[in-house]
Structures are given as structure tokens and as C-alpha cells.
Amino acid sequence: MNPTIRPLTDDERRALAAARLVAVESAPYLAHALFSVRPVAAVGLDTFAVDRHWRLYVDPASLIEWGPLASGAVLVHEVCHLIRDHSGRADSLPGPVDHSRWNYATDAAINDDLIAAGLPLPEWVVTPAALGLDEGGVEEAYYASLSPEPPQTEVGCGSGAGDPQQAWEPSLDDPQTPGLDDGQVTITRRKVAHDVRDAVAQGRGTIPAGMARWASDELRAPTVPWRKVLAGMVRRAAALTAGRITYSYTRPGRRRLPRIITPAMRAPRVTAALVVDTSGSMTEGDLNTALAEVGGVIKAVGGTVRVIACDAAAASARQVRNPRDVKLIGGGGTDMRIGIAAAEALKPTPDVVVVLTDGDTPWPEAPTRARLIAVLTREHGMSRVPAWARAIHVPAA
Ligand SMILES: [Zn+2]
């Protein structure tokens, strides 16, 4: 039977907050992920699960029955599915995916680590030993070793663990229970990998071996595929702009009856403003790479770009005709709020404002009318970007 999805009540929220405290205490290096998941009540689910957009489905009855200790441990388990990208990795498995087998493989890999870290997992959880597997293995190896038809007990941690998407999962942009987009997911995962690596380096607590291995793999990966992530952000910002799919008679649809022009459904072009930080610590190299790349991404998704050079030292911002005309001034403080205000004052008003900065700037307190995307050349500026904006780190060339 399908669970009923709804926001958590205040009481449920408090109970979950207690479980999350337990989770953060037992796995502090996962704090960023534990606070990034979007909890939703799933009445009748009879457990916790996650989806691809980082929603955490919580059956309130399970939350009460397990209490904060066991709920906290299950919370850590679910978040591990997300940071270890078990949904993306399921897509990369050879042949048609045996979802049940994959869920056993991933559960065994996670729980192996969590039990080693001393987490009080419920005793019915899947472990490598219970499946006749060696400890310390990786998910794909467990998957390959398991027989195609494992013993049938109750498993299923949701589409965020690699299960098929369920009909009852809300869409990414569901107004009541919005999820995280691919850009936010990529960035959160990267942040957690940094935290795990730092915890290992400083010898803080017991970092499970599988978790440390995951973090070093994640950080060894070339870099965040930021062009893809940024293109996704721009596309999504455009789609969100008032859900503006309009009927247009300018380009006839393909299914055209003689002498009757059917309207073509087409999304309007994205108008974007690109605000460039000309002071601060950006180098010529940073600027040129980022300008070319960001401009290219916006054009690739069918957008038009206007460029604004923001000189915070002179407290001025002006539109430049050619991105090559952007000149770095250097020095002085940076206040990108001046450039953002200038971008929002443009006619026609931009749908998306992309700010290109080293990140050493204050940000507007209230959400801007245009969707705001911060492209940062220094990773440490990420934490300052307000939660309502999107942020991505683009490494200097
Ligand atoms: Zn699981």
C-alpha cells in the first residue's frame, strides 16, 4: 500500500530533531548531510527511506517505536545511501539492475561501517556476515557476489538508495516538500567528503574504513563536473521562472494540419545577467576561464547573457557590451550586492542572476526576484552563500 506523504507535524519534527542530534553525535562528519536532507512524513511506510532528491521519508509510527537512539542510527544509515550515491551507482551497474540485490549489497556495506563505528543499529539490519560476505567490501563487489535471488526479507531504502522511483514520490519542485537538485546534491556530497577527510587527518573519533575510502575516492575524482551542474542550475532556474511554458504561434508545431497552425509549446528563452567581481582576489586567469565557461553554459541552454562589471571599491556597477571589456581592478573589499541590485534593475528583468566572485562578499539578506546562482572561484566562500541561492565552486584554470 502506498504511504501518505505530508509535511511533518511540530511534534514529529521535534522527535526527528532528537534523533538527528543522536546521529550527529555518533557521526559528526556527516552533520552537513544530516542537516541537508529534507524530512517528509510517509504515513504507512513502516520504516525510513530516501529519494534521489534527498527527501527523507519518515513513518511517524517507526520514529516513535524506535525512539531517538535507534532512529538516529537509521538516520545515519539512510544518509549514507545518499552520500555514497547508491542511486547513481545503481544506474552504472551492468545489465538490468536487480534492485533487491543492490539494496542488500549497499545495506551490507553501510552497516558494516556503522557497526564498526559503534552505532546502535536495530538487530535486524543486513550485514555482510548475515549474507555470507567478507567484511570491508565495496557495494559493487557485494552485488556481484550475491546470488541473483537473495532471501526475501523486508528491504528497500528508496530511490535514493537505488530502488526504482515510486509513484508516490513528490516531484523535485513540489511546493510543499521540495527536494534538492543535482547541483545541491553534488555540492553537499563534496562538502561531506571534505569533512570526513579532515576528521581522518585530525584523528577525531573512529572513522569507519569504508567511509574514509569513500571520501578519498570522492575527492580524488577529477573535480565536481561543474559545467554540467551549472547548466542544470541555469536550466532549472529558467523552468522555475513562473512555470513559464507558453504557447507560441511563431513556430508551428510538427503536427500541423493543412492550413491550420497548431501552437508549438515552447519554453521562453532564459534571460540571464552575469555579475562579475572586478575587485577582490580574482586573477586574470580565473576571470577569463570563468567568463568564457559561464557565458558558454548560459548560451548552451538557449539563454541570452548581459554582463555587469561590479567594482565594489567604487560602489558602482555597469553593463559591459563585450565580456572582454571587463577589467580587473583588484584590491579593496567586495560587495556583490551592488552588482546584484544593478542586475535586477535591468530591462527586461533577468530570470537568472549568476554572480562570479571569489566569494569574499556579503550577500543580500532577502531572496532576490531572479534566481541567484553564485559561481565561486574559491571553495571556502561556499558556506556564506545564503540557503535560498545556489552555489557552485569552479576551480581556477
Ligand atoms: Zn538501506
How does the SSE layout of this entry go?
Blueprint (H helix, E strand, L loop, with lengths): L3 E3 L3 H17 L4 H6 L1 E6 L4 E3 L4 E4 L1 H24 L2 H6 L7 H18 L22 H7 L36 H20 L7 H12 L5 H15 L5 E3 L15 E3 L3 E8 L6 H17 L2 E9 L4 E5 L15 H9 L7 E6 L13 E6 L13 E4 L4
Parallel strand pairs: 2-4, 7-8, 7-10, 10-11, 11-12
Antiparallel strand pairs: 1-2, 3-4, 5-6, 8-9
Helix pairs in contact: 1-3, 3-5, 5-6, 7-8, 9-10
The structure holds zinc ion (ZN).
Zinc ion binds next to helix 3.
Helix content: 25-40%
Average predicted local confidence, pLDDT: 80
Order of strands, widest sheet? 9-8-7-10-11-12
The strand count comes to 12
Give the helix/strand class.
Answer: alpha/beta
User: Number of helical segments?
Assistant: 11
Report the sheet with the most strands, covering strand number, pairing sense and barrel closure. 6 strands, mixed
The N- to C-terminal Cα distance equals 52 Å
Secondary-structure element sequence?
Answer: EHHEEEHHHHHHHEEEHEEHEEE
Q: Give start-end ranges of low-pLDDT stretches.
A: 242-267
Beta-strand content estimate: 15-25%
Describe it for me?
Helix content is 38%, strand content 15%. By secondary structure, it is of the alpha/beta class. The protein folds into two domains: 4-220, no CATH class; 226-393, Rossmann fold (3-Layer(aba) Sandwich). It has a six-stranded mixed sheet with strand order 9-8-7-10-11-12, sandwiched between helices. Strands 1-2-4-3 form a four-stranded mixed sheet. Helix 10 links the parallel strand 7 (270-277) and strand 8. Zinc ion binds next to helix 3.
